[in-house]
Design a protein that fits this description.
The protein is mainly alpha-helical. 50% of the residues lie in helices and 9% in strands. It has one domain (2-276). The strands form 2 sheets. The protein has a 3-stranded antiparallel beta sheet with strand order 2-1-5, with helices on one face. It has a two-stranded antiparallel ribbon with strand order 3-4. Strand 1 and strand 2 (186-191) form a beta hairpin. The protein starts with a helix and ends with a helix.
Length: 277
């Protein structure tokens, strides 16, 4: 059964790539914080009401008509928010939301394809997904190199969202933008959102920054490079690419610990063919 599902998910990648090429809105690299903050799932998580958050996701999975909720369900599974971590199950959620035209989900799904987590590993396929989601609009790098870079980007963003303290970056103050050379693995931080500040130190009226943005991004990027499959150097070229990092913590700010709750699987043995159509 596992091989049956894996094979059809590999084929499903082609269907999703086609759907993304025709159905995605204008290029977008991350989910909109403004759009997510009022989503009932996010509101429930931020209130610590995991039972409600999971209940809100599960009916949407059954009806399969809310791409934002599917994306949030993927993030919950991928990062262990309210439910136990299940990266493989998260892949299905991201894939379905991507197929419904949600760019942020397409980027998260691309990282899964680049990792080979819950689907066949394929840097070129990941690159196709990332391009249709808005990355490298000028075709500066090959799809293979883009898929590799986009996979590292996805893992680094996830690590930052999981580890940074609440309020590390101030929302609406810019984006984290990096420049990356796939062939040399050299990365440079071009810009970051404004960093949040903590309490004033005793005897001082200056509030210290919560994090060193450069240091945190550098560390997350190094860790991500170590986690992804080693690429074929001959296919990386010599160009560099600019990419935004998703450090928006709209959902993660209310990170609730994993509970004994479950999200329904998106695929059963008899559902695979229906998903392909």
């Amino acid at each position: 059964m596992k091989s049956f599902v894996a094979t059809h998910w590999a084929l499903h990648l082609a269907a999703i790539a086609f759907a993304l090429g025709t159905g995605l809105p204008a290029p977008a690299a991350t989910a909109s914080a403004e759009a997510l903050v009022s989503n009932p799932v996010v509101v429930a998580v931020r209130r610590g009401d995991c039972v409600k958050a999971v209940a809100l996701v599960n009916p949407a999975v059954t009806s399969n008509d809310d791409r934002t909720v599917l994306f949030l369900g993927g993030r919950m599974l991928d990062e262990g928010i309210c439910v136990k971590k299940d990266p493989v199950a998260a892949t299905q959620y991201f894939a379905h939301a991507a197929n419904m035209g949600y760019p942020a989900a397409a980027l998260d799904y691309a990282a899964k394809v680049g990792l080979g987590e819950g689907t066949a590993q394929n840097y070129e396929g990941a690159g196709n997904l990332c391009h249709t989601a808005g990355l490298d609009p000028q075709n500066q790098v090959s799809r293979y190199a883009l898929g590799y870079a986009c996979t590292v980007r996805g893992i680094a963003g996830k690590l930052l969202r999981e580890t940074l303290p609440q309020g590390a970056f101030r929302p609406g103050t810019g984006e984290a933008l990096i420049e990356f050379s796939p062939s040399t693995s050299q990365m440079r931080v071009r810009s970051t959102p404004k960093v949040g500040r903590g309490e004033m130190a005793t005897g001082s009226n200056i509030r210290r920054p919560l994090v060193d943005a450069q240091e945190e991004i550098d560390k997350a990027w190094r860790d991500a490079l170590a986690q992804v499959p080693k690429p074929d150097a001959a296919q990386l070229g010599s160009q560099t690419i600019e990419m935004p990092l998703d450090v928006d913590m709209t959902l993660e700010v209310g990170r609730a610990p994993a509970e004994d709750l479950t999200l329904r699987p998106l695929l059963q043995s008899g559902d695979v063919h229906r998903t392909m159509n």
